Structure prediction request, 1404 residues.
Amino acid sequence: MNANTFGSLLRLTTFGESHGPAIGGVLDGCPAGLPLSEADLQQGLDRRRPGQGGLASTARDEPDRARILSGVFEGVTTGTPIAFVIENTDQRSRDYSAIKDIFRPGHADYTYQAKYGVRDYRGGGRASARETAARVAGGEVARLILARGGVKVYSYTTEMGDVPAQCMDPLNAHTRPFYAPDDYVVDIWTDRVELVRSEGDSIGGVVCVTATGMPAGLGEPVFDKLDARLAYALMGVGAVKGVEIGAGFSAARNYGSKNNDPITPRGFASNRAGGMLGGISSGQDIVVRAAVKPIPSVAKEQLTTTTSGEETTVRVGGRHDACAIPRINPVLEAMVCLTLADFWLLSGRRI
Amino acid sequence: MNANTFGSLLRLTTFGESHGPAIGGVLDGCPAGLPLSEADLQQGLDRRRPGQGGLASTARDEPDRARILSGVFEGVTTGTPIAFVIENTDQRSRDYSAIKDIFRPGHADYTYQAKYGVRDYRGGGRASARETAARVAGGEVARLILARGGVKVYSYTTEMGDVPAQCMDPLNAHTRPFYAPDDYVVDIWTDRVELVRSEGDSIGGVVCVTATGMPAGLGEPVFDKLDARLAYALMGVGAVKGVEIGAGFSAARNYGSKNNDPITPRGFASNRAGGMLGGISSGQDIVVRAAVKPIPSVAKEQLTTTTSGEETTVRVGGRHDACAIPRINPVLEAMVCLTLADFWLLSGRRI
Amino acid sequence: MNANTFGSLLRLTTFGESHGPAIGGVLDGCPAGLPLSEADLQQGLDRRRPGQGGLASTARDEPDRARILSGVFEGVTTGTPIAFVIENTDQRSRDYSAIKDIFRPGHADYTYQAKYGVRDYRGGGRASARETAARVAGGEVARLILARGGVKVYSYTTEMGDVPAQCMDPLNAHTRPFYAPDDYVVDIWTDRVELVRSEGDSIGGVVCVTATGMPAGLGEPVFDKLDARLAYALMGVGAVKGVEIGAGFSAARNYGSKNNDPITPRGFASNRAGGMLGGISSGQDIVVRAAVKPIPSVAKEQLTTTTSGEETTVRVGGRHDACAIPRINPVLEAMVCLTLADFWLLSGRRI
Amino acid sequence: MNANTFGSLLRLTTFGESHGPAIGGVLDGCPAGLPLSEADLQQGLDRRRPGQGGLASTARDEPDRARILSGVFEGVTTGTPIAFVIENTDQRSRDYSAIKDIFRPGHADYTYQAKYGVRDYRGGGRASARETAARVAGGEVARLILARGGVKVYSYTTEMGDVPAQCMDPLNAHTRPFYAPDDYVVDIWTDRVELVRSEGDSIGGVVCVTATGMPAGLGEPVFDKLDARLAYALMGVGAVKGVEIGAGFSAARNYGSKNNDPITPRGFASNRAGGMLGGISSGQDIVVRAAVKPIPSVAKEQLTTTTSGEETTVRVGGRHDACAIPRINPVLEAMVCLTLADFWLLSGRRI
Prediction:
């Protein structure tokens, strides 16, 4: 059982509630000898922080500074656990007292109450997306491990609301709003988000995470297939409701003769498999997609009950994003980085 | 690391190659006092065996009799590991010698070779779907554990090829060919499969697995969310390329105000979340879907290489199914049963 | 693999180096609803802190205040990870620069260098006994879990140097210097420690940890026997070189007819088994003993080499204890508490 | 949680009861490319089988033939799980019906009943020493992995009853009765065992397991120290009540200045640490000792109760050993082999 720990040889344990003193994590199993500083973690945190998404993003301005407490000596990892803490400086607990006795629809209020009997209702507590900052910090270390082996992980948004992009330039998506994979879709998505926000509503989207430079041979059949662990990694992010590998659901609508990737002396002739066969990487690019649900916090009135079971309605106002994209992108990348770096180490490869 | 072991408190370890002496499994963590016989395992195995799928299914007739070696005394489980073995009686190794030196497209031949350096090429070896028989046997024990708590798991096929069903009567799907959820689609799917088979090709489909009678409170945030573990479970089945929870990818195309399930004093007013929020079961039905790729073994000529890298073509004839559905359905059910029974025990519930 | 994480359902991950910014831990799996405050953790830390052992103890005065960062809301655990941090306020790195290029005999300098290639040489870094403060803090939570079930864990010292105690009043040992189990031995041990310290040397001893109020039925055969997990727990404390359950090594010198504990209608007539049979608790008191080696840091001159392999000598002066007892006692208790509380939860018992 | 599974990357799961259909195991994580046959497993099983110990040993003659079911193809491991089964051919259940309703002192009858509510009373069921045959079979594979790296594991008996040996020739102990480490003690131990057996009693002893050819750097601080994992491994063998590393309990009675192993340019000048420091191997020989309790099955009359709580007496006659030594020696070696091979793989070393 892992619960708040992710990984086998490279294990990230996260902790913290949205409005508690701090959030953070402990990354165990990072090889010794990797140059690492707080600035490395900050890169990912800055990409995930509020305000990055332009209109889609919350107004809450949390600095999100990770302080490294252990595992690094003279600028280099020592092989011991790397602990880091991010203080919750902008807590504003008062914003949330109104929802103390209400189950917000689409949130985990009801189920946390059912499971634990008590619950930190402030800003979602542990179920807040704020927890993912610790994943991003840990994921940046995994990214550095992979970089040593020539593996590069990036993401791009293929859909927002129900507006797909053309994905003509995915490698530079991180330079555009919403991690848009082409220039043309940016304005359309901006308009879409503005409209939705003005209506007090929210939208979702689809994010593709890709890894290049992968060696063949990573993955552990039968249950710890590379596909299975990636699905576990991405579906463990709160807003994700679907995961696809390679052709995904469209593979289910294809013929076997067309879905198979032909093998040639120069390598595979296509990559409908998404970079893995039988749970083991094939040396092609890893391609996974995650369906991101619309943020459940909407200003529109919603039907719900109080914690004591009485009918009521709720409007979740305040400083909420209209879409989890693009702030969720670094989180999804982090989960892929952590998964791939774990398999990298499991394969006996070093850094 | 788990590799060939699945689960936390209820752990199934499977072993065996398609054409080795036997396949089987060890189920550890089953509570004592559960009535269990070989006939219980056989129920699942019979549903998974060749010939069940009518036209879709292979001609290979493997009896698949599970023999229990341990963990049961006087008809009742004792709390010790339940080992079971299924002998491989119909091996016919000669059928496979032709593909010894070839990488079959869409199969794991290439990646197993890359990872392990050696490979049991007979019938796919460990990567054969035959391995899933052990999952089914173990899953039947999990099903009995869940039954004690009033949880029932069943599946139905929502799509074959690109032909969707109407899903008017999913509860009785197991009584129809292809686990069809309504009577009308059966003939259409039968024709579809016949045509594809006659063309030497194959198709895939989508299977929905549902659990009724679920208590609220199962699941372990943040990484071991119920959603995450179900995705891991289903994506760990060879042919699965996508997994959705509840509304899945369509949630990504919806508005927050519409995707949230309203809460009423009588319970949730809808189940777009698929029975879980924040990684914890809500007490509603669990709803997960798996995209099943078309079987890669097709009689049509495929471009590939020999193991020494020379260009060649291959036709994979023989006793292959034209679609993994319906034989994959009991496997997907088994994976859901194992996952839910594991969380059942993790919650401290007894049988 | 666990490395810096201990436990199955109740999992303590510790982090931190002796002279890094902080040490601490994350305790995952603690049930919700347990009243908990920083004062609870402090109780154990205060018992472990320097100065508790009278003459045996180091002069370094570290406040060791644990700050809880998560998992507690309104004074009660929420079921989410409990993270705590203990800042390293009294670091004095200058004390240790002299040993930067030397392998101290009996310490982990050589092996950390061999394993990791780099090493935080300040005060032993991760291998410092200071790390155990985090175990004590986590162990106090486990102690509270056990207390809910009526289980009480305490320790007493049965030997110091080679001077055994009479163990006439072990329950009150925590009120005496050295956790002495009778009044008579205190002066003798005090003299012994004074003498050894004056000679620039150190001694070890034997500590017995006992649990009362145990239910029968805890433990998980065959590999996770209660005995095995306790041995793992105690041998994982740096200074421990031997572990015994019940009669221990003396059982090996006894007859079967005399070593067996007779069973009577009133219960077991003796407890040579130490409270467990076949890896499962019998309902009797748990009795385990740990052999604690003399502290390797001695002021006497020791033969060693530099990190580049040249012969040299070293005197490890400074603020070191002359004996790990009594500061190790709360650590050993913590490890037993964590082990028993883990099995408590594994048995499906609640708090 | 592991229960019936041992190890991290190299994982042995065992199953089976003394008088069920079969016992066996599944070894997962063995690297591909290792030549392996059933004869390799048989070597260990033959050393463990009844009759090896001369007078000390039971008359039961179980062939103990391991059949490999998977994981080996054309004489070489494939990286997939290696399952093996040992049929229980000589069951004689009738011998045990007399003890069906009695708790045998020193056995696990009482605690299994307390934990599981049901119990296979035939010959101890799962708690029978027979289970260890599966450990020996799995351990032989681990031994072959270690042999590839030049590591050799052997054992010798240092004490039987309370008669110590001189340990002049431990390397050849396996060629002598009782794994005696010198010629002189053989006759004395033989007389001792004969006498004890004639009295209807039993004795225990102490076994030392040693590994030569170890590299420095194996082990995973802080909880998975090499010492901790070895203690866990050995204390998980039913009859073991104490474990020592290196000087063990005698270290607790020594001075720090004398207990430290001096380091010289030629290596360590002594090995009181038993081959590890700070939980990491030092490159010296691994030295661990296990205290083996006298076999609880004695023909002398013992006080006990029936399962319904009535006072009674029991004589456990039949085909029992008078001492677990030497049959336990291969089991202890197996546990050390499995532990070291696991750390070998965890270090990223290959075979």
